[in-house]
Amino acid sequence: MLTTEPQTRPSGRNYLARPDRPSPNQTLLPLTARVNDLDRLEIGGCDVATLVERFGSPLYILDEATLRTACRQYRQSFQTYYPGPSRVIYASKAWSCLAVCAVVAGEGLGFDVVSAGEIHTTLTALDLTGRTDTPIYFHGNNKSLAELRYAVESGCTIIVDNWLELEMLAGLDSNSPIPILLRLTPGIECHTHEYIRTGHLDSKFGFDPNQIEAVFEYVLSQPVLQCVGLHAHIGSQIFERQPHQDLAGVLAEWFKLGLEKGLPLEQLNVGGGLGIRYVEEHDPPSIEEWVKAVSLSVAKACDDRGLSYPLLIAEPGRSLVATACVTAYTIGSRKEIPDLRTYIAVDGGMSDNPRPITYQSVYRAVIANKMSEECQEVVTVAGKHCESGDILIKDISLPRTVPGDILVVLATGAYNYSMASNYNRLPRPAAVLVHEGEANLILERETLDDLLRQDRLPARLSHP
């Protein structure tokens, strides 16, 4: 929460990327953000207020350069610090659409998918871009038989989560062995929101440690299953490096056991989870720092056990795409409650960003058409939904605003569009990809007719 006096800083200029913090996950605005001669925010060479005039609001604005930079930093850092082979795969649940998939694939990354819909989106993007040899890994704690068939037919590696899934896979007709990784629960705690911790023992994901030997024996008894690796993931929005370092030792020990049992293990997937800087106080390690810690820890864990270096896989999502995107809103009504609070309302809210009401997530914002004006008031940014909890940002210092000003919420690339809904029958927003002064529509704004597209009215209820 921001509780300082509102005049303490300019509204927007201090959020621009600094040369000493070149890692995208450590910035508040995209790397290309600048303030132009009209004192307006530009991203990717495009004036944000002009984008709103052209495409409407709310509007997701994705900076291609920032996304590409994050992809390259991950890939190059693993090549620098890990002595064995490595592979970076995008956790596409953060934001799955054709354009995002195309950019990520263009930077040489693979994909982590969690549904038939994400498989279909990824395959379509790869087909359209000619990158059909890109590896895809299929996650999920309750995959259906139909989804498993689709994934196997599509050439995905299956990250197996539980006994039922193992048995369904073993029962599939397949002309060749099905490559799988086993997801294991490492029992490692980390400081993050309880909903996004996945590595502790009380988790819906993965096989428990006391099941490992039985799982290994079962897989060895099924000729159709080819277990090529192990997987574990400890959570999301993590700033600490120690939990990831601890994970290396746990996984290496299980990896050694699997090899001794006779499994053809060659891949070690450590998940993702690196956090980003949503507000000034957040201080995550850089992409390079995180990769270095993970790489050296895995290498040492293997050296200590006399293991050859496996293919090391990481699956970042949020730290790739979150700060590459902002959401632009148009400010509408104002409500001032003397000596208590001032609300300003925008034309979106929990339907385009459910994270504050779901996770109590915090954000920062700027006024895109008043980037250098000093903060003059502390306000609470409210959404337009019929829900008292529809608050995007509580108690933020901003310049004095009027209806029609453009409020831009920062770092909205991860779990915003992907979790968007039609609550209150609001159409989902449009999204544009900006790059070197060009803006391309990558997701069309839904229309009112789109809201009715799946509706069906029984004949007995219609007019005779």
UniProtKB/TrEMBL annotation:
Keyword Membrane: no
Domain called Orn/DAP/Arg decarboxylase 2 N-terminal: residue spans: 67-322
Protein origin, superkingdom: Bacteria
Record's protein name: Diaminopimelate decarboxylase
Residues annotated to bind pyridoxal 5'-phosphate: G273, E315, P316, G317, R318, Y415
PROSITE patterns (UniProt xref): ODR_DC_2_2
GO biological process terms held by the UniProt record: lysine biosynthetic process via diaminopimelate
Biased composition (Polar residues): 1-11
Record Gene3D superfamilies: Alanine racemase, Lyase, Ornithine Decarboxylase, Chain A, domain 1
Cross-referenced SUPFAM superfamilies: Alanine racemase C-terminal domain-like, PLP-binding barrel
Physiological role: Specifically catalyzes the decarboxylation of meso-diaminopimelate (meso-DAP) to L-lysine.
Residue positions binding substrate: R318, R355, Y359, E387, Y415
Family the UniProt entry places it in: Belongs to the Orn/Lys/Arg decarboxylase class-II family. LysA subfamily.
Quaternary structure annotation from Swiss-Prot or TrEMBL: Homodimer.
Catalytic residues in the record: C386
Pathway: Amino-acid biosynthesis; L-lysine biosynthesis via DAP pathway; L-lysine from DL-2,6-diaminopimelate: step 1/1
